[in-house]
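User: what does the whole thing look like in 3D?
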Amino acid sequence: MEALTLTGEVREINRALRALPDGAAATVADPRGRHNLAVGLDAEVKVTIDGPAGYYIGGLGKKADITVNGPVGWGVGENLMSGRVHVKGDASQSAAATARGGLVVVDGNASLRAAISLKGATLAVGGSVGAYCGFMAQAGTILVGGDAGDGLGDSLYEAVVYVAGRIASLGTDARIEELTETDVKTVRDLVKTCGFDHIDPENVTKVASARTLYHFDTQNHDAY
Amino acid sequence: MNHTFPPSVIAEIQERASLGRYAIRGLGARRAVPSFDDLLLLTASASRYPLEGYRERCETRTVLGARNASEPVVLDIPITIAGMSFGALSAAAKDALGRAASEVGTSTTTGDGGMTPEERASSKTLVYQCLPSRYGFDPDDLRQADAVEVVLGQGAKPGGGGMLLGQKVGPRVARMRTLPEGIDQRSASRHPDWTGPDDLAIKILELREATDWRIPVYVKVGATRTEHDVKLAIAAGADVVVVDGMQGGTAATQDAFIEHTGIPTLAAVRLAADAIAEVGADVQLIVSGGIRSGADVAKALALGADAVSIGVGALIALGCNDSGHPDETGAKVDVTADYRRLGVAPGDCSACHTGACPVGIATQDDLLSRRLDPGLGATRVANYLRSLAMETTMLARACGKSDVHRLEPEDLVALTVEAAAMARVPLAGTSWIPGQPV
Amino acid sequence: MCGIVGLHLKDDGLGGRLGELLAGMLAQVRERGPDSAGVGVYGPVRTIGAERGSAGPTPGGLGVAPQTDATGLTVLKGVGDPVALAEEFGLAGMSGHQAVGHTRMATESAVTTEGSHPFSPRPGLCLVHNGSFANHATVRRALEAEGVVFETDNDSEVAARFVGHRLDLGDDLEKALRLVCDVFDGFYTLLVTTDSEFAVVRDAVACKPAIIAETDRWVAMVSEYRALVGLPGFENARVFEPGPEEVHLWKR
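Assistant: Here's the predicted 3D structure for the full assembly of 914 residues, as structure tokens:
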């Protein structure tokens, strides 16, 4: 099927994207950093956003395969349920925020609070992440090909972070754990899917929750 | 009487000494604050004539969010049911509330845990909350909702995140919220992907795009800097603003938060209504926090609200704080002993946080949940809502109004100087409004 | 809550386009602050009273006459739609080596011209702010006790006068901004400029946006990425986001 090229107002573009049937493809030409493109999709469609995009790109999405040829703003793939969002550039704050399923791939760097409140999705960042990566992440997987900023995995629940580079500091209740065979396999598969050949699956640092804040206790008042 | 260390304060200190953490409980602020009880309606007189009940119409239909939505929310009465989570409440309770609301033609609201299929099925008009935690937030549920409510805070704890103690994080709740079973849930107090009204404006657009601009967007705040908050919510794009005063309830919050944060609903209503009027936008106002009777509803509307929202009151109608619950035959089974086991008594219980609700409302325990029959419960709540609506129209008619939304501040006077100042209506018997230029 | 844009030229050859470029950037952050707007343009030093100096007529829509100080900084601000205001200011025709702009959605103080940003409490010093401080009332009182006089009840003015006061006491701009991080609670992205410096700093939590882009011809700072795309040579810019409590400063 020939790909549709879409221009115009964000609302019209999104309407056209939502009308696409399974298997269709479309390109959003000239996005110019605008917000909310390809939000709330719910079909097996392939969408290319051909340039820099703004906030919440691909947010609240299901099943779609979205590629951005440029950087994105806050909350790329926020609350993603399934499908994929691939950023061929950098992502700003809160990448994959609260995402519940599917895969968000950022080839470049992600800034603050990447994968905040993650709920089961996977975020893979080829470059580095800023501070507070994985803040309150409840479930899912985070892979960082470069370095991680301060406060990594603060208040982590059951999500797991793998970092190939240096970690500036760990957040509250986060700790480094030994890699298991399952971890290595998970990372290897993810590296393959994303094409992140610069990551050696056996040489990443695993960060997980120490689970000491799961119950309210006065002994932890400093941690809060 | 020792006002500084009365028995209740002594008990609170002892509780902290024993627990080693803050005291947590349910319901709203207990202490006396200026409220609608301090206002009186000036009904008919020689200069103002009443409408007859029944034949002479007093309209209660309420339309919310027509500004942007292609499908605004249309209610038969200006009284809705506030957001309370499945998790805080049992599934049976949410079901009963939904049925009651549908029966009387109003809406219910999801809570900090997401939308259950039971509530969507039983509630004809369902408002879907988008909270800082985003527990269970699902675009499919968003698309099925009749409105979306972006929650910045609630009256019981403006600035505090949601809380659910481990004993209520059972298998189903844990699954919905993507949490390990049995942990003490500590929610975020800020949203993960926006902070501030400038970025909220972009988030609201996202929610509109995801719903094709069909449904209204509400923004809910706990009442603190209400004038600024309401103006900012409007600037960010809210179609409806929901303001929850300090008396607003909760299922689990630190007592220090409940009693010592936010402003009384009485003060908040007037601030919010005046802010909307000043901006001049086509935005509606819903107020909540201690609404109990049709008198409260009428006074809130007179001060400028378009509707009220009820939380605790609806639960009490459902059976909260009742000494017993009906069995299959309808006979009342007394459960006072269960209250006593929690260290409380029927009529004075706020132990929602324990999950051991003796009447099956604020619990996740299967056995306790069975004590609440959704059908019987729905009837009671529907009765309560209908009687509230009747009281409201009775009072509006007595003020000569053919529509409850035509109640105005001039229909009110205050009993105390504080209430007069907060509501900006005269002290009864005088023309004095404290703080206003003479 | 607001939108910030700023442009610091390294290549004086772009000086004639400064106003035009900033106007384009400002239009992209208009939705973030529809209530009012202001710009600070660092142009050639002029004698007071010439052209649109303080002796000139007040263009319609502006609450105060444009002020150009001894360093060549002209501050123009007003109430209303930012794009319309920029046209009234004649921004597109202005030239210089550096400019900042701000669009405002008022938080806790009134929408007035005086309350708009930028604040310039000292010749050549300009501050624009996105976010809200939590303890500015206390900082204001402390500054008043040291003799600082305020013009508005605006929280951003407190930050501006704090920085100005520190500069008066001999601190350099970088030190003053580090002190801001120590002293002020709240969420804030600040763009602070003097006649020769362009600096950006964010609070420890950094929840308000900030993006910096740099080429060998200019440095720009914006609240939203889309405000950068029109800048010449942007395709080759290094784009990054400053981290919490980092002072990023460029000096001519």
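In plain terms: Chain A touches chain B through 46 residues (CB under 8 Å). The radius of gyration of chain A is 18 Å.
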